[in-house]
């Protein structure tokens, strides 16, 4: 069975898609067969792996509306062992449909689709939209755990209580196995006092839910790094764009912490 990890935060600009793409690529580099599901209508994860709209005909919209199976839309990326279920702006229509339909078990649509291919991958990483709408609820309902990126900036913890409340509600109702994989500080700058303060706050409130790796068991943070920001425009995860940069080292450490 795959380990299914949803990368989620209803705040935008926290490094959610960056984390989903680069964690997936780093896990693939460890000889793990990985499927990255782009469930964000903005389809930034799809673009980050070098795919453009003309490169594929079907996407997660067709999976969610039942016209295609997940296996029928999966693409092989340029990264060995890494596969992609692409997204498209049309996925917005699914959210609208959720609000006007009373379809039974609509929160479990994605889980049912994943169950069919669950044994084919070691890890399934889901990139969810920056909102706690029906698509994100589907992603969380289908997952074993949720990884929450938090930017080391002002208002970093804003809205986090709502996300944690949603996770607890889903755990009590339709997905009892759902747990918090961990919190990942992103856009960290060691020269910035605010970054240090946010990291201190996270360590105080969620000490046991931060990722650690290495003999010193230091907290894994994703640094503010220009190479990470540049790599999506080249359609490459950071390890393919600049293997030696600090950003790639951080995601390699994160993948190692997850694999164990």
Could you please describe the fold and organization of this structure?
With about 260 residues, this protein is α/β, with parallel strands linked by helices. It has a single domain, classed as P-loop containing nucleotide triphosphate hydrolases (Rossmann fold, 3-Layer(aba) Sandwich). Helices cover about 40% and strands about 15% of the residues. The protein is built from twelve helices and nine strands. It has a seven-stranded mixed β-sheet, sandwiched between helices. A hairpin with a 4-residue loop joins β8 and β9. The longest helix has 14 residues. The radius of gyration is 17 Å and the shape is globular. The mean pLDDT is about 95.
CATH class bucket: Alpha Beta
Q: What is the CATH-assigned architecture?
A: 3-Layer(aba) Sandwich
Structural class, by secondary structure, is alpha/beta
The number of E-state strands comes to 9
Distance between the termini: 17 Å
Describe the main β-sheet briefly.
7 strands, mixed
**CATH homology superfamily:** P-loop containing nucleotide triphosphate hydrolases
Q: How many independent structural domains? A: 1
Summarize the structure.
It is built from twelve helices and nine strands. The chain has 260 residues and is of the alpha/beta class.
């Amino acid at each position: 069975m795959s380990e299914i990890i949803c990368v989620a935060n209803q705040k935008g600009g926290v490094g959610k898609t960056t984390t989903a793409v680069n964690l997936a690529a780093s896990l693939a580099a460890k000889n793990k067969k990985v499927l990255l599901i782009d469930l964000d209508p903005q389809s930034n994860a799809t673009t980050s792996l070098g795919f453009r709209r003309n490169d594929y005909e079907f996407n997660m919209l067709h999976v969610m509306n039942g016209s295609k199976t997940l296996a029928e839309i999966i693409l092989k990326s340029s990264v060995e062992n890494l596969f992609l279920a692409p997204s498209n702006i049309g996925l917005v229509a699914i959210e609208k449909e959720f609000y006007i339909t009373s379809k039974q078990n609509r929160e479990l649509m994605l889980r049912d689709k994943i169950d069919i291919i669950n044994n084919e991958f070691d890890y399934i990483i889901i990139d969810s939209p920056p909102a706690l709408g029906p698509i994100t609820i589907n992603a969380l309902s289908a997952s074993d755990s949720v990884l929450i990126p938090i930017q080391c900036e002002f208002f970093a913890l804003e809205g986090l209580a709502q996300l944690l409340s949603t996770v607890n509600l889903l755990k009590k109702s339709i997905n009892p196995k759902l747990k918090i994989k961990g919190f990942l500080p992103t856009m960290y700058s060691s020269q910035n006092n605010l970054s240090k303060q946010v990291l201190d706050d996270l360590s105080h409130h969620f000490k046991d839910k931060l990722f650690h790796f290495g003999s010193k068991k230091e907290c894994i943070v994703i640094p503010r790094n220009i190479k990470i920001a540049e790599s999506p425009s080249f359609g490459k995860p950071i390890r393919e764009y600049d293997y030696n940069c600090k950003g790639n080292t951080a995601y390699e450490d994160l993948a190692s912490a997850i694999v164990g």
